[in-house]
């Protein structure tokens, strides 16, 4: 029932309805002072804006794969090459039943010069029936300077010496034992230092003298 209808009913019954003041009273009507803003009041600081960090995809670095070094390949044993660094020259002196084959120094370039001729003459002095000094034994330029070729060269010269009655070989060379390795066993082989070694070192001179004493009768 609305207030208006209620007042009509009360009026019909002889009752004067009392009109009350509206309860919608503003702040000043109630005697309540509005809140005064304190000018010195410290206003709460605004919270710092939270920085929004975009999601970052974390990439885990791959652990490098450590590869083991391959095992070193076994190196073949060092082999002595048959090829020589430079050509060899030999002076040949026939001494009766003995043939002397002496390696010349490389600086002579295959020539029996003054010093080497004098040394060969001193050697032949202690050997019987020494022949002329002037023969040089060497490989042709078209033939490779290998040990095997020099061994063949020596064997060919010994065949000629054998036909002339020679039975002994005095081989004076830096690799005398290698050159004499293939000499026929019927030969009496005596090995010693080369002419260059004899000129440079007195111990080789002593070795040569001991060899001459063994060979000479």
Structural features, described:
By secondary structure, the protein is an alpha/beta fold. Helix content is 29%, strand content 12%. The protein contains six helices and five strands. A five-stranded mixed β-sheet has the order 3-1-2-4-5, with helices on both faces. Mean pLDDT is 78; it is low at 29-33.
Topology:
Layout: H1 3-12, E1 90-95, E2 98-103, H2 114-125, E3 135-137, H3 147-163, E4 168-172, H4 176-179, E5 188-192, H5 195-200, H6 202-215
The percentage helix is 25-40%
How would you sum up the major sheet? 5 strands, mixed
Order of helices and strands: HEEHEHEHEHH
Strand order of the largest sheet: 3-1-2-4-5
Provide the β-strand percentage band: 5-15%
Q: How many angstroms separate the termini? A: 170 Å
Q: How confident is the prediction overall: mean pLDDT? A: 78
**Overall spatial form:** rod-shaped
What structural category arises from helix and sheet content? Answer: alpha/beta
- Count of alpha and pi helical runs: 6
Q: C-alpha Rg, in Å?
A: 62 Å
């Amino acid at each position: 029932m609305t207030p208006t209808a209620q007042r009509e009913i009360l009026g019909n019954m002889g009752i004067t309805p009392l009109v009350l003041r509206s309860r919608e009273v503003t702040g000043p009507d109630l005697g309540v002072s509005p809140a005064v803003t304190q000018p010195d009041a410290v206003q709460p600081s605004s919270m710092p804006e939270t920085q929004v960090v975009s999601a970052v995809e974390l990439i885990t670095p791959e652990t490098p794969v450590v590869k083991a070094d391959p095992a070193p390949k076994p190196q073949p044993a060092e082999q002595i090459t048959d090829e020589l660094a430079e050509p060899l020259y030999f002076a040949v002196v026939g001494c009766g039943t003995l043939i002397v084959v002496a390696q010349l120094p490389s600086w002579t370039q295959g020539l029996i010069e003054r010093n080497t001729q004098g040394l060969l003459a001193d050697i032949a002095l202690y050997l019987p029936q020494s022949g002329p000094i002037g023969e040089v034994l060497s490989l042709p330029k078209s033939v490779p300077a290998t040990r095997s070729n020099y061994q063949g060269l020596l064997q060919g010269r010994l065949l000629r010496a054998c036909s002339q009655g020679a039975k002994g070989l005095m081989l004076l060379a830096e690799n005398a034992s290698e050159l004499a390795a293939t000499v026929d066993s019927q030969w009496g082989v005596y090995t010693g230092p080369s002419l260059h070694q004899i000129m440079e070192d007195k111990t080789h001179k002593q070795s040569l003298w001991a060899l001459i004493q063994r060979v000479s009768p």
